Amino acid sequence: MKCLNCGSEITNNLKIIEIFSLTPITPNYICNFCRQQLKPLINRDNCPRCFKPESGGICSDCQIWEKNYHKINCHQALFEYNQFIHSYFKLYKRYGDILLAKLFYQDIKSWSLKNHFDVVTYIPASPGHLKERGFDPVYELYADIFDLQNLLSKKDADKPQAQKNRLERMKTPQTFFAQPAINQLSKDQSILILDDIYTTGRTLMHAHDIFFERGFTNISTFSLSR
Ligand SMILES: [Zn+2]
Ligand SMILES: [Zn+2]
Q: What is the pLDDT of residues 207-219, one digit of tens each?
């Protein structure tokens, strides 16, 4: 197997227990060299709400969310946003290398096996972006791992997120609307909303609101990077 990011051969050092195990081995699509450039977020004294690393308690952003908007974040993420993640998303999203959707398959899969939800949905691309790219990057990142439900739609934005400053992003009005399938769910079901990157939390907060306003109370969010 070759690394999807750099093309190097991946050496799988299987443990004896894995070779004789009857459970299927989760495929790995990233080599050790590329993996070493990642900064995992696990066990880093993260903010218990948004997973910001080395926060030493609830971070200032989450305190603002809670004080001003009475919203409690329940977010988890796998890797800190760094140069490697930046380059990865550039290749994957901007240059449309859809094969890269599987680069973190093993990591996301292993998270999915430890965290259970009744309903899993995702942040969809806006119609404009979908047409431009030809695929939905968040959907493709998770589609092989979770039983994804299409519950949200996104309006086309006036200005791309990347061109906005932090304050503009936090103040963006609601950009999502609900799909009719949302009405088939029961309010006590646990909901997980997936995104690719968590920056200010605004996008996931908007998606969260769609469920919250309809009476759902058990809502969590997840992103590959934070
Ligand atoms: Zn590699
Ligand atoms: Zn936080």
A: 999 999 999 999 9
How many angstroms does the Cα of residue 102 sit away from the middle of ligand 1?
13
Closest-CA residue to 5 (of 101, 136, 138) = 101
Nearest partner of 159 among 134, 126, 187, judged by Cα: 126
| Model confidence pLDDT, tens digit, residues 25-45 | 889 999 999 999 999 999 899
In the CATH scheme, what is the code of domain 37-225? 3.40.50
Domain residue ranges in the chain: 1-36, 37-225
* 3-state secondary structure (DSSP) of residue 28: coil
Ligand 2 midpoint to CA 137 (Å): 25
| 203: Cβ contacts below 8 Å, ≥ 6 apart | 123, 161, 175, 195
- Which tokens hold the place of 162? 């990347």
